[in-house]
Amino acid sequence: MKPRLPQQVRVLERGWLSSNNILLLEGERATLVDSGYISHAQQTLALVREALDGRRLARIINSHSHSDHIGGNATLQRALGCAITVPEGIAAAIAAWDEDFLLLKPSGQHGDRFRHDAVIKAGEEFELAGLVWRALAAPGHDMAALVFHCESARLLISGDALWRDGFGIQFAEISGQAAGLAATKATLEAIGRLAVDVVIPGHGAPFAEFDDAMARALQRVAAFEQNPARMVRSAIKALFTFNLLELGRLRRDRLAGYLESIPFFHDAHARLHQPTAGLAEWLLEELLRAGVVKLQGDDILPTQTA
Questions:
Q1: Contact assessment for residue 136 and residue 87, using Cβ atoms and an 8 Å cutoff
Q2: CA 303 to CA 306: how far, in whole Å?
Q3: Quick one: CA dihedral 267, 287, 39, 52, positive or negative?
Q4: Angle value at C-alpha 278, between 276 and 284, nearest 5 degrees
Q5: Model confidence band, residue 176 (pLDDT cutoffs 50, 70, 90)
Q6: Please, are residues 130 and 96 in contact by the beta-carbon 8 Å criterion?
Q7: What would the DSSP string read from start to end of 268-279?
Q8: Distance between CA 217 and CA 185 in Å, rounded?
Q9: How confident is the prediction for the chain on average, in pLDDT?
C-alpha cells in the first residue's frame, strides 16, 4: 500500500539517474529538496514548474553533494530565482567548484556550477511546509550528507543514507579517504532510533516498511564488513550502471578504455589486487547476468530507463 504523506509534501519520483525531488508547499511559496542530474535539468524544471502550480520556488536544499542531487540547481536558480542551501560540510567545495571533492572527475560525471546562498548544519531545526524538521548528520555514502527528520509527522527524507533495499555507494571507504562503512553503520543505527512511519528516499518510491529497510541495510553493512571485496565489486557495477544511463549506449570494444579513463574504476579495481585487463570482461558478464544491461549489435545498453 502506498504510504500517505502530508498534503503539502509532494514527491516527484525520478529514475536512478536523477534523485527524487521533494517539494514542500507553504502558502504561495515552496522549497525543493534535491534537484536531480544535469542531463535531466530541463525536465526537472518542467516538472517543478508544473508541481508549483503558480507558487514561487523560494529555496532548494541539498541533502548532499553528489551529481544526481545537485545537477539541476543551476538551471532552477537561473530560471526561478531561488536561493540554494547546502550542507555545511560541502559549502567550501561548492564555492570553489572542487570537482574532485564533488566526485565529478573521479566518477566520470558532470555538473553545472551554481552559487549557494546559505548552509545548513547538523542539529539545526527549520520549518518547511508548516512542519518542523531537524537536519541530522548522515556520513557514509557522502561524508558530509544530511538527512531531514520531522518528528511530528514521523517522516524522514533520507537521501542516499537509506533506501528501501540498501544505501548509496561507499565512495569514501573504497577510495581510502575515510572510514565510510563504519560511518554508514553509525548513521543507520542513529536513523533507527528515530520516530519514523514513512521514508522518502533519494531514489525509489516513498515507503512505510522502515524496520524491514533498516534490517536489510544493516545486513548489507555486515556483508561488506565480512567481505570488503564484495563491497568494491558492488560499487563498480553500480557506478557503471549509473554512468551508462547517462551515456545511453557504449560500444563493447570501448568498454575497457572507458573504465581505464575513470579514476574510480581504476582505483577500486586495484583494491581487488587483480589486473585491470580483465575488468571489462568481468563487468559486462556480471551485468548481463543480472539483466541490468543488454547487447544491441556492438553496443552495450542499459535495460532500465534514466
A1: no
A2: 10
A3: negative
A4: 115
A5: confident
A6: no
A7: HHHTTT--GGGH
A8: 9
A9: 96
CA distance 134 to 125: 4
pLDDT-derived band at 275, boundaries 50, 70, 90: confident
Domain boundaries, the chain: 9-226, 234-302
Q: Count CA within 13 A, CB hemisphere, residue 293.
A: 29
Interatomic CA distance for residues 50 and 44, integer angstroms: 10
227-261 b/e with 16+ CB inside 10 Å = b?
eeeebbbbbbbbbbbbbbbbeeebeeeebbebbee
Assigned C-alpha cell, 244: 551508462
Phi, psi dihedrals of residue 88, rounded to the nearest 5° = -55, -40
Give dist(CA 140, CA 167) in Å, integer: 9
The CA distance from 70 to 138, in Å, is: 17
Which of 32, 34, 9, 1 lies closest to 20, judged by CA? 34
pLDDT at site 272: 87
Task: Determine phi and psi for 221, rounding to 5 degrees.
Answer: -60, -45
Answer yes or no: are the C-beta atoms of 133 and 104 closer than 8 Å: no
The two counts, helices (H) then strands (E), for the chain are 12, 14
SS3 302: strand
- For the sheet with 299-302, list strands across it: 250-251, 299-302, 293-296
Choose among 213, 232, 215, 223: nearest CA to 163.
213
C-beta atoms surrounding 218 within 10 Å: 16
Residues 6+ apart with CB under 8 A from 246: 17, 37, 39, 109, 110, 306
CATH number of 9-226: 3.60.15.10
Q: Strand 125-128's sheet: what is its strand order? A: 125-128, 131-137, 146-150, 155-159, 198-201
Q: From CA 62, how far away is CA 10, in angstroms rounded?
A: 16
